[in-house]
Amino acid sequence: MRPSTKFLLVEDDRNDLRLVQEVFRRGNHCQLSAVEDGQEAMEYLLGKGEFRNRTQHPFPHVILLDLKMPRVDGFEFLRWLRHEAPPDLRLLPVIVMSSSDHPRDIRRAYELGVNSYLIKPIEWAEFQARMEALNIFWAQHVETPGTSA
Questions:
Q1: Residue 106 within a domain
Q2: DSSP string covering 45-72, please?
Q3: What is the dihedral of CA 78, 116, 43, 45, to 10 degrees?
Q4: What is the DSSP string of 110-124?
Q5: C-alpha–C-alpha distance, residues 64 and 116, integer Å
Q6: Residue 108 maps to which CATH number?
Q7: Structure pTM?
Q8: Would you say residue 107 lies in a domain?
């Protein structure tokens, strides 16, 4: 049996966090951990501080990343992940999930190495359907690179 796919959600909006958690809970295909910004995401991936215990904070297979966040935003996090993080971490798939549909943001995210870019739908039903599809796709159809982290 295939192990459960683990997602790390990097999201500062509590409403969006709650909505994603609800879909993942009902989907039963993937596990979801969450942090509030890019700084916490770096600490999580490196297993620093409160994130040392990998039983409580499992290493993710996929990152869901918001762009507009305090401290370290999504663009800064992507730059760190793709160019400064330990080599194994650089392979982690990243899906940007942003409310921005601005072509400049989309282009910049891809230039920084994002694997896909999703625009957050405003309607709950569409948001739910998109998250469910994402959950199934990554849990049942995609192989991710292993890491030694």
A1: yes
A2: HHT-GGG--TTTSPPPSEEEE-SS-SSS
A3: -120
A4: HHTT-SEEEEPPSSH
A5: 10
A6: 3.40.50.2300
A7: 0.89
A8: yes
149 found inside a domain: no
Token readout for 96 is: 């940007």
* Continuous segment of H or E residues that includes residue 14: helix 14-27
Cα-based angle 89, 94, 62 (whole degrees, multiple of 5): 75
Condensed to tens digits (0 to 9), the pLDDT of residues 2-38 reads 568 899 999 999 988 988 888 888 866 688 999 999 9
> How far is 33 from 56, CA to CA, in rounded Å?
9
The count of structural domains within the chain is 1
Write out the residue range of the structural domain in which residue 129 sits. 5-140
> Which phi and psi angles does 84 have, rounded to 5°?
-120, -20
Cα–Cα distance between 27 and 98 in angstroms, integer? 21
Q: Is residue 34 part of a domain?
A: yes
Rg of the Cα trace of the chain?
A: 14
- Please give the Cα distance from 47 to 41 (Å, whole number): 10
- Read off the pLDDT of residues 33-70 as tens digits, 9 standing for 90 and up: 999 999 999 999 999 999 999 899 999 999 999 999 99
The total number of residues shown for the chain amounts to 149
CA–CA gap between residue 113 and residue 83 (Å, rounded)? 10
d(CA 143, CA 52): 25
